[in-house]
Structures are given as structure tokens and as C-alpha cells.
Specification:
By secondary structure, the protein is of the alpha+beta class. It folds into two domains: 9-161, no CATH class; 176-254, no CATH class. It has ten helices and six strands. The chain has helices spanning 9-20, 28-32, 48-57, 75-82, 91-107, 126-133, 184-188, 199-207, 218-222, 233-254; strands spanning 37-42, 65-72, 113-117, 153-161, 192-193, 196-197. A four-stranded antiparallel β-sheet has the order 1-2-4-3, sandwiched between helices. The radius of gyration is 21 Å and the shape is globular.
């Protein structure tokens, strides 16, 4: 006579989690690491320009979905400081890669994935992905803004995966700039031209000797949207120091 072992509900629950995977929005690893902006897209629904960018990076990739990982506010920086610390050449990228790796290995072990950002900077239209996710609205100071985090958010990683998650619904908040009448960002910027902040003028000012815009952005600091999420001094200095390196490299290449 055959006997059958009855599997406990706890075991069956764990087995189903392994088989189905943990959606980014339900991930303890991502939440504990400060990755609080997350979006899942089916690859075949993305605009052609994005799919072409992906193909240029990974022409042989055979994945089903794209996962976009971001952070808003100071929580991720705090998690980074509490882990390996702010060390190495690219501590934020290293931390992001490690977090995504742990998310897949610990919470989605049955799924394959491939990181395509931050490994290939400049090749993915991150702001376009941000618009699709509802994270990004254009601002006068040329940094994305939304009504939940203001301008204090960033894209940390993009992965292709063979997951089968329910795609994310976009954030549907309107641009906070539409309701802003006084535009304090425009008044605060030292290089406004005809009520507009031109990119080349901004870059020139940031590269100038003794510029007050070198390690900050006066226009961004003047924005009243979600100032409670503003980066702390150390995080602010890190981001703006990195961007100065990028600007100098860009200008050198231009020349």
C-alpha cells in the first residue's frame, strides 16, 4: 500500500514563492536597501526606441521582462553607509549591483537575469523609462521631478529577466511644476536666459572657478516639492562630484 507525505502549508508556500518569484514591490531585500522606486515592464510592450537600445546592448538576450530599480530620498544612502560604506571607485553602482544580485539569488532563484545598467551607462534612455513608470516629469532645472519624491530620486539599476510578474502600473501623479506659479527654481538659477535654464550655460557655470553650483544646484535646492526627501550633505556632494567628472569628460570629448 502506497503512502503519501502531506506537505505542510509553510513548505508549500515557500515552494510557490520559489516557483513564482518575489515581485520587486514585495521584496524585503530591496526595501531594506532603500530601493523604493520599482517598475516591471513586459519587453514586447516597450517603445521601439527602448527595445532598440536594449538590442544594442544585448542582441542575443531572450528575456521576457525589464525591471527598473530606483530610489527616492535618503534611505538607500543610509543602507549603503551601513553596509560596505562609501568606499571604492563606484560605491553606489557596486552596492546596486550587489542588491539586485541578492534579490535574484535569494528571492528569485528560479529566474535568470542580466543587468544592463549600470554596466552600460549612456546606452539606455533612462528618462524615457522613468516617464513610462510615471517617475519623471520635466522640470525647468533639467532634472526629473515627481509629486512623491520631488527631484530627490535616481535610477539605480535595470535588469532583463525571464520573470512573469504582473507589470507595474505607472504613477499617475501630475507634474508638480504645472501647479507651481512662482517658479523659485528659475529665480535661484544664476544662468537663466530668457526665463529658461540652458544646458550649456549650466555646464559652463558648474565648471567655473569657485562656482556655487559645482557641488550643488541652486535651482534644485530652491524647488519646494518634497524638500523632506532632500539628500544629506554627504550624498549631495557625492552625486555632484560624480557629475562634475562626467561633465569634464564630456567637454573634453567635445573639444
Amino acid at each position: 500500500m502506497e503512502t503519501y507525505k502531506v506537505l505542510s502549508p509553510v513548505f508549500m508556500g515557500k515552494l510557490m514563492t520559489i516557483m513564482q518569484g518575489v515581485h520587486p514591490n514585495d521584496s524585503n531585500i530591496l526595501a531594506d536597501s532603500g530601493f523604493n522606486l520599482l517598475a516591471v515592464f513586459d519587453l514586447d510592450t516597450l517603445p521601439l526606441t527602448i527595445r532598440q537600445s536594449i538590442k544594442a546592448i544585448a542582441p542575443e538576450a531572450d528575456y521576457r521582462q525589464l525591471l527598473l530599480f530606483g530610489h527616492g530620498g535618503r534611505r538607500m544612502w543610509q543602507a549603503l553607509a551601513a553596509s560596505a560604506g562609501i568606499t571604492g571607485e563606484n560605491p553606489l553602482d557596486d552596492f546596486s549591483v550587489d542588491v539586485v544580485a541578492r534579490y535574484f539569488s535569494d528571492e528569485n532563484p528560479a529566474n535568470r537575469y542580466r543587468l544592463i545598467y549600470p554596466q552600460h551607462p549612456g546606452m539606455l534612455p533612462l528618462q524615457q523609462l522613468g516617464r513610462l513608470a510615471g517617475w519623471h516629469h520635466d522640470s525647468p532645472f533639467r532634472i526629473g521631478v515627481n509629486d512623491r519624491w520631488g527631484s530627490w530620486f535616481a535610477y539605480r539599476a535595470v535588469a532583463l529577466a525571464d520573470t512573469a510578474f504582473v507589470p507595474s502600473l505607472p504613477m499617475v501623479d501630475a507634474s508638480p511644476c504645472e501647479a507651481c506659479v512662482s517658479k523659485p527654481c528659475i529665480s535661484a538659477c544664476p544662468v537663466v536666459s530668457g526665463n529658461e535654464i540652458l544646458l550649456d550655460n549650466c555646464l559652463d557655470e558648474r565648471l567655473g572657478d569657485g562656482s556655487s553650483c559645482a557641488r550643488s544646484c541652486l535651482a534644485r535646492m530652491a524647488c519646494p516639492v518634497k524638500t523632506e526627501h532632500r539628500y544629506g550633505p554627504e550624498q549631495m556632494a557625492y552625486h555632484y562630484d560624480c557629475s562634475l567628472v562626467t561633465i569634464r569628460r564630456y567637454r573634453t570629448h567635445e573639444a
